[in-house]
Each structure stands twice: as structure tokens, then as C-alpha cells.
Amino acid sequence: MHKTLKWLIITGGALLALVVGALILVPFFVDIEQYKPQIEKQVSDATGRDFTIGGRLKLSLFPWAGIAFSDLYLGNPAGFGEKEMLSIKSFDIRVKLLPLIVRNLQIKRLVIDTPRIVLVKDRTGRGNWEGFREKAGEAQVPAASEKVEDTGSAGKGLPIKDLAVGEFAITNGALLYIDRTSGARKEVADLGMHLEDVSLDRPIHLTFSARVDNQPIGLEGTFGPLGQDAGKTPLPIQMVVKLFGQIEMSLNGRVTDAAGNPTFDLGIGVKPFSPRTLVAALGQTFPIETADPMALDKVALKMKLKGSPTALSLADGALTLDDTEAAFSGKTEAFSRPVLVLRMKMNHIDLDRYLPPDDRATTKKDAEAGIPEKVKEKTDYGPLRRLVLDANVQIEKLKVAKANMENVQAVIKAKSGLIQATVKSDMYRGVVSSHTQFNVTSEIPKTSVKLEVKDLKVNPLLRDMLSKDILEGATEARMQLSMVGTETAAVKKSLSGRGQLRFKDGALKGVDLASMARNVKSAFGLAKAGGKKPRTDFSELFIPFDISRGLVRTGGAKMASPFIRVSAEGQADLFKETLDFRINPRLVGTLKGQGDTQSRSGITVPVAVSGTFASPIFAPDLEGVAKGKIQELVKPEGLKSLLPAGKGSSGDPQDDPVKRILKGLPFGN
Prior knowledge:
31-stranded mixed β-sheet
């Protein structure tokens, strides 16, 4: 027994020595160079491209099985300009053979130096990466009768028990993309990747760097350990990504079951950077034109991100946008028909900064110069019809359209093309609430708005929004409006609805209706300048209105004032921005005791309001007052009311009743 074992050991050792000796001696006696033409021909036939290896092939078998070559070239098809699609200056790999017997992969060295890939799309849209095997014909498909053997390796993890890599590196790589259909050209240069301490049971350190269009990008960190069930067990990741010398982003977390049903749980952090500086560094024009040229100058982000192929969730989100700080969370699922849930709290934001600048002056100049307006593309509302949204946004301070709001609470919901937004906020010491419905189920969107206002101070609102100091008072309002389309002209022409405005304890500034009613010249801007600015105080101003196709009509507007009672009727054309109103005043008989010493009796004059929204014109309605005077005169008591009580003509020409009547008319003075 011992003798047999001895002979087996001797025989095995001899065979092993013979194999080792053969592995050492074969590279010295076998000229691998003679096989290079065959290798080149086989690759060329398989790819349909010219393939050459310019340098010598080097082969070693013990203790490391290795192959090295240099100056490898894979050509392009005709018509693509660039001669080579792929080139490698040198390639060197060395693997230990004996450990492979027990499924241990030990790589001493795997280095690829100066690889260069050129991807070209010609003017017909065909890429040089297409059409492989054209010279060799189509790939052979196994006959139906041929049974493909199932190795049973699926789902069993890696085919090796252990992995150790001493050096893995790609150096001086380059990637060039040329699109001749659009003229685009993108280049990645100085590409390098290095892996350190590669094994299955320890974290792997990765370093990657490159220059994209001469701008640096980089990645550094660790991932792993991979474990025996690589692709199934959780894969820890700790990475720092640096882009273009401006952005630094950190990724910390893990990926689970990457080979099956992958899920990830990552913490993401982006340090503050300037989008404007970033775009300028890339040599591009900033794609968004904002009213404030300093907007979008600072962005930072932190959040926890969990996801799978079918769902994504955000938690502990923190966004910095210029001087705005926002906390948010959310989730989404069913990406083909997205279901979005969003919760956000924001300290303050001035939306006017981020809106496009007012280009009305430019448009007017272009029109005067005969430059046609840009034709706007038809909006595709398909994504909005598929969207399912549930959003809740809270903003401490908001500025939009120059108006300031506080404690804004917005709830936005969307489903099947119907988007509804309910907003409530404190505004100029009052409360404003609205419900808006945006319907995109058809090609032309429809919008409806319900608005309610309580105790809003209208004067600071008008000053902020319109730079107008024309009205004071606490405002209450209710209105329901509907419109079609999104363009301003279409909205104005289609606007319809009804509502009412009520102003309490306020004043019309710049207008003295009491003086206008008495046809005082200064009230219509005919007196000398420099006097006290006119105004009409009121205890209540009530304006009900109806809107039909952009035409606003009112027939029951009225105002109660210490000096005068006023009713008004007329219309305003929102599309043409013109006014056509008639104000009918009725003076209070006496104001003694209210700080007034002047007589207020006499004939009142209706006031006609015309002109435009920007430049309203107030003028006495002489035609109306003349008709009113004639109607008074034809009454038996009409003439008597114009004469001094208990007196007739005294015989004095100056005391003639007719003259006194004429003097009572606005034009009699």
C-alpha cells in the first residue's frame, strides 16, 4: 500500500514537472508570430473590417499565462472618413494558470494603453458601429433540431471561487463621436481608470478620470466587497463624482440584487455650484433667459434616494436655489404612466426673477421693422394626460407678478388630463383663496378659476403690481372665470364669467367725483397744475360685473361717499384694452358738520370715462346733462325749482330768470 502510494506521488510529480517544463519551454520553441496573419484574417472576416496587429505577439505560460501585443487597429467601412474605428497602442494580460484548476482567478496584470474609439454617423444617419459581419454574411443560427445544452449556471453566482487582481488599468484612452447629420462633435480624452486591491472579500478602490470637450470629469471611491454571490448580495458604494471643475457629488449607499431585480438605497449630496459659471466654462450660452440675470447662480442638493425598476422614492430632501431653501420628499411609480407624490416646504422665493424678461418692447420693435414673430410649435399635452400627481407645497413668502404673498398653501392634483390647484395665502393683510382647473383632455386647453378675497388692502397691491396709486380700501371679492387656450390674445377673447368687487372705507385717488359732478374745471385737468391731488373718499364701492368673450360689463356699480352718491354703468374691452363707462353722481345736499363749508347744491354732471387701461380719460357728459336739464324744465315744477324761493323777476336785467337758468347749466358759466 505504501509502495503504491509512493509510486503515485512520484508519477504525479513527474507529470506535473513535465507539464510545467512544457509550459516554460513551449514559448521558446513555438513562434506565435506565424499565427498572427491567421488571427488577423479570422477577425477581419468576422467583423467585415480591416484588422491588423502591427507589433509582435508575446506569449508566456508559466508561472503566469500571458499575452501581450501592440499597435492593434480595427478599420472603418468605406465612406466614414476616419481610417480606424478602434486602435490600441499596447495590451498586456497575465493570469496564473494553476489556481484556475480550483476556480481561483488570479490576474497579475491587465493593462490597456492608449485605446482610441472613433464613432461616426454619416450624412445618411448610418453609424460605423453598424454592419458588422457584412463580409462574412449573417451569423449562423442553430438548427431547430440542434439542442442547446443548458449548463445550469444561471443563478449560481460567479463561476469562480476567488478573485485577485494585482493591477487593472486603462491609460491615455480617447473616445471621439462625430455626427455628420448635425455637425456635432464630442471628444473624451485623457481617459484613465485604475482598480486597486481587487478581490471578492474586500472593498475595491476605483479611480476614473477623463476630459470631456477639454473639461475634466472624475470619479473616485470604493465599491464592494462583491462576495461569492456577486450581483445578488448587497453591493456597498462610496463614491465622489467631480464634473467640469464645478460640480462635486457624493454617493453613499448600496445596490442589491443587481443581476436580478435591482434595488438601490443611496444618499446623494451635491455641493453648492453655479449653473451659470458651469455653462460658461463649457463655452455655451445659458439656455434659460431670466428677468434677473443673477438668478440660477447657486444650487445645492441633498436627499436619500431609494428605487427599483418600477418605483422611486425621495426622502430628507434639501434644495438650495440662490437664496431659497426648500425641504422636500416624494415618490413615483409606473414610469410609463407616472404617478407622482410630492411634499415641499419652502422659506421664500421670488418667481419673477426666474420668469423670462418682458419682451413686449422687443416684439414691438420687430413688428415695426417688419420682422415676423416666431411661430410657436404646437404644445404636446400627452405627458400631462398620462400624469397622475398629488402635490402639496407650502411657502412662507412668495412673490409672483410683483405681488407679495405669505403662508402660501397649494394643493395640486392631476389625473387623466385634468389638473386642479387649490391655493390659499395671506396677502396684503387679507386672505386670498382660489381653485383653478386646467383641462387638457382636448387639443385646446380649457381653464376655470374660482377666486375669493377677504379684507385685502388694495392700495399696496396696485402699487406693487401696476405701480399705480389710484385706489384705497379693504377689498372683498368673489368671481368665477373661464377661458380657452394659453396665448394671451386667445385668453382675452374667450374670457367669460361673473363676480363682484366690494371696497370699504377707501378712496378713489386722482379723481374728485364731487367736483366733476359740479363741472369744476380742475376736476377734469383743466385748471392750473400744482394744486392738491384730487380724491374721492367713500365708505363703500360695490362693482358687480359679467364677462362675455372678453367684454366686461357692469350695470349696478355704486359708491357711497360723504360728499356724493354714485352709480355707474358701461363696459371694458379686455382685448382692445379700452373703456366706455358713464358715472352718474348725486351730490349730498349739505356737508356742514363734516368739515366742509362750501355749498354742494346745484346741477350734477354725469362723467364719461373713455380711453385705455393705461390712459383713462374723464370728461363731463354734456349731452347727458343737457337731456336731464330739459326733462326738468318741461315739468311744471322744474322752472320754479331753479328760481330763488319766494322771488320772481325784480326787473333787473341781471336778475332775469332765463339767465339764472342758463347759469345753472355747466356751459352757462
